[in-house]
């Protein structure tokens, strides 16, 4: 049983989806505190000239780092403005992409979110991408798991993993800085670090490939079918 764990992300990059696809179960961390600045609410895209640009969804910022992700709300003013700006940015800068017309209606619909829950908004995006890339991995929310809530960091992750009878914890390489592999070994859980290399594809607005953008950059450039095929070829060609 291979389990991966991560916070929900805004239009996540391909590496996030790669890790999800390689796991049997994927725990969404919805009961941990927000971080600032947070990749949970922002991601990178390209302008029509191939320049990287961060887009950030507006949230109610007062004391938000003391809230669980599930408690954070989109700012009723800023979120509307920011998501409208994102919609305008993506429409303008990707309008010449080969598969813009195929992909845009779904992206536009996702950005026209009228609710206030950040988590619900992010899950709409993640579930859309799961469908597009045909990822069947079971999603489990941290908030639905019974464990000792006083535990943090590695101890918390181990309890979450043990609750699902995980044999293998698939972790991102960025976690190496704070991971204590000995704790997992003592808990009889093997830690495997995700090996991920971004699949290469032609980006209409730059001659030099720019990796690790939001996954919708691939969708606009390769289309739904082409992106799905490229994604799974890359999953199959890379080690866990």
Helix content bin: 25-40%
Order of adjacent strands in the largest pleated sheet: 5-2-1-6-7
Number of helices: 7
Q: Please provide the count of β strands.
A: 7
Cα-to-Cα separation, first versus last residue: 13 Å
Order of helices and strands: EHEEEHHHEHEHEH
Radius of gyration: 18 Å
| Low-confidence regions | none
- Structural class, from helix and strand content? alpha/beta
Number of domains: 1
Rounded mean pLDDT is 93
**Beta-strand content:** 5-15%
Largest sheet, in brief, is: 5 strands, parallel
Shape field: globular
Short description:
With 240 residues, this protein is α/β, with parallel strands linked by helices. The chain has helices at residues 14-21, 78-94, 100-111, 118-132, 153-163, 181-186, 215-237, and strands at 2-6, 25-28, 42-46, 52-56, 138-141, 168-171, 190-193. Strand 3 (42-46) and strand 4 form a beta hairpin.
